[in-house]
Design a protein that fits this description.
Blueprint (H helix, E strand, L loop, with lengths): L8 H34 L5 H7 L8 H14 L12 H27 L2 H8 L2 H13 L5 H17 L13 H31 L4 E2 H25 L2 H10 L5 H28 L2 H10 L1 H12 L5 H27 L14 E2 L4
Parallel strand pairs: 1-2
């Protein structure tokens, strides 16, 4: 059952504002997350399960937008109709299941981050766009225009161009076996997250209740809570909780900075998750995949600046291709929106049955 409402002008304006905010959050998390995670391993961190746990341990931050939405509703709705949480059991179960998949994906990505330079892991993650596009077509019947197909093609080619320099990126203290295993684990993480994004969109479409932005934040909180629980089990099995205090004391740049890096990892990656979920709500899973891919060269440049990683000519080409793909996608969006202005606003992206009323 799908609950569909005609979009109001106020809803459209608010949706655009939310889309911009969530794109900013996604950008912060997508660029900052890999850098901070890699920093943990560069200076002596070795706990892969702990790094995985940190990726969703910032889930309590989601309570802030949920509380803001509750206070907003308290001024516009009768107390009898206003609840702090609106999620029904079917949606809760779906969020929990996706959360477990996210926890597994966190582990795969952390394993790769422990063994690969940021530039290499980022370019592998760029392949996620192709996986997202494929699963979006299969799961949510994503409609493609020539502009979105061109964007996917250009961004995928950009990732391929970057792949030309990977052979020279293997750290000196890593064996070929460890490097290849890290490469494969990151590729599987890319495949799995490419599946998770359209799965979230499908869940929104099939939800047996109206999807509001506040409900999306509840969904995100439950998803990260179960992902954190999954990684907590891994930490317990691996005895990470006993080892972490000793690892912090022996950390190369000091115990205090060890915990600062841990906190920054939790905050930046939570920004990424909040941004991704918000972009899917306001637009589509394909746009979230486009955003992740187009930010790849930015992450590459930051890795060169902060970690002195090599910057070959291939990265210049990839940057140009990514910007071209990004412009192509949004030009198509603007053209399609203007074309449909006389009727109900639609884009090439499938409409998610959601509402901004009762945000």
């Amino acid at each position: 059952m799908e609950v569909v409402k005609e979009p109001k002008p106020a809803d459209t304006t608010l949706r655009k504002a939310l889309l911009v905010i969530n794109c900013i959050l996604l950008s912060i998390g997508n660029c900052g997350g890999p850098l901070v995670m890699r920093l943990y391993f560069i200076h002596g961190g070795k706990r892969v399960w702990f790094s995985s746990w940190l990726q969703t341990a910032g889930w309590p931050l989601t309570l802030f937008p949920i509380a803001c939405a509750y206070m907003h509703r308290s001024r516009t709705q009768p107390p009898s109709q206003n609840k702090l949480f609106y999620m029904k059991p079917p949606l809760f179960i779906a969020a929990a299941a996706i959360g477990v998949l996210t926890g597994l994906d966190d582990y795969l990505y952390s394993y790769g981050s422990a063994r690969l330079p940021v530039s290499t892991s980022s370019l592998i993650i760029a392949s996620q766009l192709a996986f997202t596009a494929g699963f979006a077509f299969l799961l949510v019947k994503q409609k493609f225009t020539s502009y979105s197909i061109n964007a996917v093609f250009l961004l995928t080619i950009g990732a391929g161009v970057l792949a030309l320099h990977t052979s020279s990126d293997r750290p000196d203290n890593e064996s070929s076996k460890e490097y290849i295993l890290g490469f494969l684990m990151t590729l599987v993480a890319s495949f799995l997250y490419g599946f998770i994004l359209p799965l979230v969109e499908l869940t929104y479409k099939k939800a047996m209740q109206e999807i509001t932005y506040a409900l999306v934040m509840e969904f995100q909180m439950v998803m990260c809570l179960f992902a954190t629980g999954f990684c907590t089990v891994g930490m317990l099995i691996n005895n990470d909780f006993k080892v972490i205090p000793r690892e912090a004391r022996e950390y190369e740049i000091g115990e205090t900075k060890y915990y600062i890096i841990a906190i920054c990892t939790a905050v930046t990656v939570q920004c990424f998750f909040l941004g991704v979920t918000g972009v899917i709500f306001c637009a589509s899973s394909l746009l979230s995949g486009i955003m992740i891919a187009v930010l790849l060269p930015v992450t590459e440049i930051l890795a060169v600046i902060f970690y002195k990683e090599k910057f070959q000519a291939e990265k210049d080409v990839a940057l140009a291709l990514s910007v071209w793909g990004f412009i192509s996608y949004f030009y198509g969006e603007i053209k399609q929106t203007n074309k449909n202005k006389p009727a109900t606003p639609e884009t090439e992206m499938p409409s998610i049955p959601n509402s901004l009323q009762g945000v």
